[in-house]
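Researcher: Last one for today. Full complex below.
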Amino acid sequence: MKKCNEIGYINKIDTYSTLDGGGIRSVVFLQGCNLRCVCCHNPETWEGGNVQRLTAIELYDKLKTYKSYYGVDGGITFSGGEPLLQKDFLLAAVEVFKKNDINSIVETSANIEIDDTIIQIVKNLDYVICDLKYPDNDMYCRYTLGSLDRTLAFLDLCKGLKKKVWIRTVVIPDINDNEKILARYQKIIRKYPNIFKWELLPFSKLGFGKYEELKIKNPLKGIVDIDNEKFEKLQEKFEFEKAK
Amino acid sequence: MSKIWDSFKGTKWKKSIDVRDFIMKNYTQYSGDASFLQGPTERTKKLLAKVEKLFAKEQKKGVLGIDVKRTATINSHPAGYVDKKNEIIVGLQSDKPLVRLVSPFSGLKCVKAACKAYGYKLTDKVLGQFQFRTTHNDGVFRVYSPLMRKARHSGIITGLPDAYSRGRIIGDYRRIALYGVDYLIEEKKKDKLALYNNGIETDNLMQLEDVQKQIEGLTALKEMAKTYGYDISQPATSAKEAVQWLYFGYLGAVKEQTGAANSIGRITTFLDIYFEKDLKKGVLTESEAQEIIDDFILKLRMVRHLRTPEYNEIFAGDPTWVTLSEAGVTEDGRHMVTKTAFRVLNTLYNLKSSAEPNITILWSKYLPQNYKDFCAKVSIETDSIQYENDDLMRQSYGDDYGIACCVSAMKIGKQMQFFGARCNIAKMLLMALNGGYDEVKGDLVFDNLGKVFDEGLLDYDKVLRAYKKCSKMVAKLYVDTMNCIHYMHDKYAYERLMMATHDTKVGRLMAFGVCGLSVLADSLSAIKYAKVYAKKDDRGLITSFEVEGDYPKYGNDDDRVDDIAKWIVEDFYKNLKSTPCYRGATHTLSVLTITSNVAYGKKTGDTPDGRKKGEPFAPGANPMHGRDCNGALASLNSVSKLNYACCRDGISNTFSIIPSALGRKQKDQINNLTHLLDGYFGRDAQHLNVNVLNREMLIDAMNNPNKYPNLTIRVSGYAVNFNKLSKEQQKEVISRTFHEKM
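Model: Here's the assembly. Have a good evening.
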């Protein structure tokens, strides 16, 4: 194990979630993100703030007690922020959990440089949840600080490593809530046989309060929630799940 | 002896009463899924419609009727029916459905008050019968000491069964079906003769009289069954008879005994033996089997007791706690799930969701996955069942125990309980700070506790010393008080029929309880880790606190405070044990409030954790509302740290979660709920109530009760129809932590 003294900057740990991967999972929200997505739910993870500083071993000690709840499907989800930005810590962490028979997944937008550490991380994961935010670089640039190319490079890496991927896409009113745009995502997804699931998430205003609290300008202020019926239709048409 | 016995395996149970042996030798495991289950028949639907009409009428009026003309005993009333020709399992407490009986043996005052509250008056005949008869309530107050009265008045020990019947005894009604009443009478006669060898002295005389009363109870039961056209002197010979015999036993008991929580026991594996036999013989179809169970469960839902409004304030929703335990694993590792365990759960669909009977799953990691999945589905869809850890309880109670009330385990037919309500330990801390004064009423309760604390910063060590001293005094007083109560209950309101279905040499558990655990743990944590300043009012008593800084709160899996909570119950249990119990009973302790957390909160002043005077406590062993903020698993873990070894009467935890937080699809929700239970119980936790519902729905139900006639929710240790809760209790339920994940 390398770099086990590496410090992780953690915004929050939620011991219980069933929505961030399969089974019962504890979610570790790592601090820091490079994308500034307009639809972000967790702007508090962007920078600074009250963070816990833990080594991988300390994190493991905190969470090992929940192993009995995880069952075969559950485990740890590293989310954020962008978890891959703290790659040295993350590698140490996923290795510790793996060594102790707790599986880890990462929820990422994958706008990062790929290097050896990232490759090692991916190898140690049960699978990856990857946000496919927008189907082209133009849209990606308009609504985030990142690019589609980087996400695709990461998906190529997973494909090469035969690592299973679960894709998530947030459907935002007036931005990508129509069949025509989603068909373009679909075209990308079909190129990757290692993608076993595509999940659409309805954009929700639940995170809006945080923007005000943090005094961050909310670019989507004034937006309306997505129409339920419309969203369900899109789900029916595009979502899929295959056996892993 | 009986021909029916020849068709069953085993010999030991044929030589002396041993229901467990009969079960172990004859039951058929079922590991399949729920697809064999049948829906309600036309007959069941018709009968249910009739009963539902009666329920609706009752809900409007409060009670459907009170029979004030007769003192209730086992065979005081003629046979009663809902719809005679359409009933499969018969028997009602009164000659009319849902009419409540008066049984003043435990206390005349309560019965009078309850009658008055609903516009009834006891007849001169009944009053005359009790003019020269001592009730349990009379007896207790003859011997209560001045201190006991003061403590009772202050509410430091509270909810005591000193004016009403104690309940929480599980008769082994299976014995009636398996052996027939005559055999049970013969065995009791033999026991009585043998008792004479022990000499004529007080304890043995008491025992002798008890056994004679038991024989009289059994004889009366036979008479009662006869009024319905049944001779139950011999063993039951079919599934229908087995259910009927067993139900008669329960019915006889609840006609005479009005105690809270007269539970029905662990019956499904036993009954299933008869069902399997009839199904195999081809004399019964699955639909008919379900129909018998449906009819039986419907009868259990119709059990009623006469309660005062004060009682309802503590135990909301008119509960009877007909607790029915099922599943679990044998001592040699075989699961005890049968088709009848499924059939009982299926009544929640066939007869719709309901609070009674209080279906309790004895959960083990060794239960078949199909059954676990079905339980989870039933929980998600009905919120009507609770879970208790069989792998934990089996170590103390073997594999033929059942749950009485909410979380109280006892060996069926071999142990009984002296129920003892609870001590308000949050108030106990305030009493320690106030030198024995009641912070609300201002009365001096304990006059040898020392001085009232000074104003200003509270010193943890000093507070702890005072608390320990107070805890010792209260514990001693609590045991003494319980001894008075149960001596008098045995003397004047003995449960002759329930005890007739127990072994004569019975084990006794004296069940103490605490409420306000999370408030006390957080209060001590605040004093230890933050700065708490005490302030006095114009009476010179400490009645408010100022908290400066943050402190670890129970419910976040933080050992700093969880260890305090753990210590509190261990310490109190140790203190209780230093005073012996009446009749050699074993001390047990529960962390359980039922719905009384609202009422007890009302009687408790400001606490050092920041809770204000009158605000509800959290129920049972739950963390305080909204203070558990590290997610559901952290909250569960905190509760799981409490030590069952010193809380053998149970540790209640009510878990509310919104459906989407269990998973997106029902398949995932079921899977995740079973993992959650496996995980929680894998940590040696004892009990979990599961509510899967939205807060918005509860608010809507509060405002539009007619839209949700069957909305059942789990509160501490039992289920209740949401509409039957008071507004205050509804609001408290809504304010609880709902685990959600955005």
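Residues 460-492 of chain B form the longest helix (33 residues). Residues 136-163+414-619 of chain B form one domain.
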